[in-house]
Request: fold
Amino acid sequence: MLQRLTGQLPSWARDDHPVTRYELGKTRAVPRQALIARVVGLALLGALLFAGGYAIATDFFQNPPGQNLTEGVMAVLYWPLLVIQVIMQIAALALTVNVVSEQKRRQAWDNLRATTGGVGLTLRVRWLAVYYRLRGLLALVLVIRLLLIFGILYDLTAFQGRYIDLLVNGITPEISPLVAALLLAFLMTASLLIPLTSLGLSAAVGLLFSVLVQPRTYNTLTLIVGIVLRTALAAALVFGATRFIQGQMPGFPAPAAWLLMGGFAAFGDWGLAFLNLSFYSDVWTVIPYGVFLGVALLAFSILQSAAAEWILALTIRIAERSG
Reply:
């Protein structure tokens, strides 16, 4: 089955391709001591983030983290996972923004440009390698999201399976519980796709900048600016969305609120907060047509994937024509 699945991939995306095997082999060839140090460092970072998340969720150990199990799990894991996601976005940019300058330092860029398809193959393989190098963090993000999805399914069994009837009561527009369940399915699908498509888009943007801004000094400046802007965007969207849901932005127009929560889910936390059914049901109640945000996120994830492919193709064309 695995061979059938991988057989549908382009040749450059398979691990038996020589260029792909070489690029991924550089990641595998890690000294044992460095690997141990990396594992210990990640374990310490994970423990620190978990402790910080638990402290925030319990108001510094003063209160329970939530009113029920799933709400408590979300409260504890939200901030650690948000930090990990921002780190992944930054890492995707950092792993790709200096590709061209790196090849030029190795005096390999001219040879690649002289080889038919060499530039395109190199850039696409480096884009693919981002997923491989961040596979541990990406797997962690997806596994936790799956657990939160199971939490949603468990919550829907409350009140003898009529919990969703209560959630759709009084929202705009009026919809049946069956339609609401379908819209929830769209949200859950989008919540698993957005981490993948966002990572791909960040990697594609990094490759584009590596072609447009080739000197190493400017590469570093570009990376710093990218880190600041990405972190600031996530922080601003999380701050704004939290204030709005808490009722601290009275008079905020409904269309702007819909866009704020959509932007928060798309670019702020990748739809993570919406996997808390209590939070998401508040969005349904407060914002007219907020129940359709899951559909919008699913469409966004598809468009984001298409945008990553378009940027990657554009980057290859620019790289092949420029020096």
Remarks:
- The mean pLDDT is 83.
